[in-house]
Design a protein that fits this description.
This protein is α+β, with helices and mostly antiparallel strands. The protein folds into 2 domains: 72 residues, Glutaredoxin (3-Layer(aba) Sandwich), CATH 3.40.30.10; 145 residues, Glutathione S-transferase Yfyf (Class Pi), Chain A, domain 2. Helix content is 57%, strand content 8%. The chain is built from 9 helices and 4 strands. The protein is globular and about 45 Å long. The model has no long low-confidence stretch (mean pLDDT 95).
């Protein structure tokens, strides 16, 4: 059986990181049996990043690699009916979510307006964490943000970038059904991974304000959420 290793839950969401939640939702929607193990320390993961999976002794690092591995090994048909154009669109959306990730993460670890509420939620839901450990994580993320570039943005400029990404999703996600039709595909799992980590959080960032104001995004998120809930 495949075992998924990812960050712990928060605010009722199965993983407080968009990439881990993306894989979790994908496996659930595709009907793949798996064990889910939550960890905070990613130092032992392939490339030092979460999520990763272990399947019959094979380690697979990275959300896209886990999805590809699962489709090939378990002969999944979740994306089988997609046209080349739809596959290209899914690829472009997936890469845009990589951009949205940095803004979402910035709102949690960098922005002084929202960081205290996020850290307080982590400590409340995961009492094994310590303030010292979270401070180290904050310092580590500050370095990542600086070298990636988002750390050099002011909060309004950072959120403008994230909202531009969310606007594209609001334009693409239909009012009923899913991105490529009446049934969800892997890109719907990916979108859910990030939107759920914005919408279900009890922290009113500009990103959450935008999502909450768009019924199609909320509807898409909550339908996937209900479908993958245990």
């Amino acid at each position: 059986m495949l075992t998924l290793y990812s960050y712990p839950q928060l605010f009722g969401v199965a993983d407080n990181n968009g990439y881990g939640l993306k894989v979790y939702a994908f496996l659930k929607l595709a009907g793949v049996p798996f064990a889910h193990k939550h960890i905070f320390d990613s130092s032992g993961a392939p490339r030092g990043q979460l999520p990763y999976a272990v399947d019959d002794g094979k380690e697979i690092g990275g959300s896209d690699a886990i999805v590809t591995h699962s489709i090939e090994k378990y002969r999944l048909t979740i994306d089988a009916q997609l046209t080349l154009r739809q596959r290209d669109m899914s690829h472009l959306i997936d890469r845009m979510l990589d951009d949205l990730y940095w803004v979402m993460s910035y709102s949690r670890w960098k922005d002084e307006q929202f960081r205290p509420a996020f850290l307080a939620a982590l400590l409340r839901e995961h009492p094994n964490l310590t303030e010292e450990g979270l401070l180290k994580a904050q310092e580590y993320n500050a370095q990542r943000y600086y070298y990636q570039g988002i750390g050099r943005y002011s909060p309004p400029a950072a959120y403008a970038r994230g909202i531009a990404d969310l606007q594209v999703l609001a334009n693409l996600v239909p009012s009923t059904g899913f991105v490529h039709g009446p049934k969800p595909t892997s890109i719907d799992a990916a979108i859910y991974g990030f939107i759920a980590n914005i919408y279900f959080y009890e922290i009113e960032t500009p990103l959450r304000t935008f999502v909450a104001a768009h019924r199609n995004l909320v509807r898409h998120c909550t339908e996937i959420h209900d479908a993958v809930a245990n």
